[in-house]
## 1
Amino acid sequence: MSTNTYRMPGKSSRGKGFFSLLDKVLPMDESIADVIHLRFLPQILFVAVLCVVYIGSRHYAEKKIRNIGNLETNVEDLRADYQTLKADYMYNSKQSEVAKEAKRLGLKESNVSPYKVVVTEE
């Protein structure tokens, strides 16, 4: 062979196929061509694509796991805040606490029991 690129026997580089384009873009010298035969190139490319997909899915899964961990921490913080606010609300809504707040505003607690107002239609 007089050229420095490896060509399959009986094939010209003027073809319109994928491998002729690959040969134009990525010329291989004879030492590489002895190790990697062009007939194995589709399998090698397929395995390479699978490796890239595997690595990408692994990164995606790790990102999701970190995100889930952060969300669990946020949920625990919000749950603690909710419990604290609920306890404060329950304490402040007791009648004795409402009476203290009303007294501070200058209001008096009524000693008269509430009564029902009945409206009759005539």
## 2
Amino acid sequence: MSPHDSISVVSIKVSQGCEMARWLLQRGGLSFVEEFQAPLLHVIATRAAGGGNEAPVLVIESGGAKAAFGTLPTIIDAIDGLCPAGAKVYGETEAERVAGKAFIAKVVPLFGPWMRQYPYFWILKDPPLMKPLATAGVPWWQRLLVLWFYPLWAWLLRKGLGIDTQTVAAAPAQIQHALDTIALELAARGTPFFGGEKPNGLDLVVAALMSPATFPPQFGGILPPAEALPPTLRDFVLRMRAKPGGHYGLKVYDVARAC
């Protein structure tokens, strides 16, 4: 990138997708500005930035032109293109990059809406826990709306995320399937990480996207400690941490993410 380029991310501080973008940019040594928004209210900023209803939106300005990327695959592609040699997301050689892109295309769908629906369902029931998570670093008017109109905001957020009894009932099995699939993929490779003996960009993507199931202490945004979670969610997270896939995700954070 030239000195005149700029990178910004419209972000939600608790979001696993935003954590992924943040972590990949940091890994690549890329300077960026992160603009935090409250869940649900973020839509105003993501649309204004050129994205859709989802966060993150990655905005790259270069030579007077601006490009916005609003889906996880396009964000990963864009960051990979910005990263210098030695820090590419997909790998360095042509063979590594072909395999890396195929891997990302296969695993990203595993971490669908259920990964956020399940923790949100439980944490939204606990306003003293949810309010600080939702309002950390956000514009003042969003903070006031969440704090003053919490019941309405929480109801609208549940609607926006598609949280209902059916999705919540199905989510644990879908999350476990995602972690089990990752564990099987890793076992087939016979290495501690997808990068081999140490984590690479693929590992960061996977570990970040599974973070709603593991609540890693080194999460780069804001998450409560597991022991502070509502009991049902806490017990689920502890079970997911104990699974091979969850243990792997936490190990990536231990090795590759500074507190």
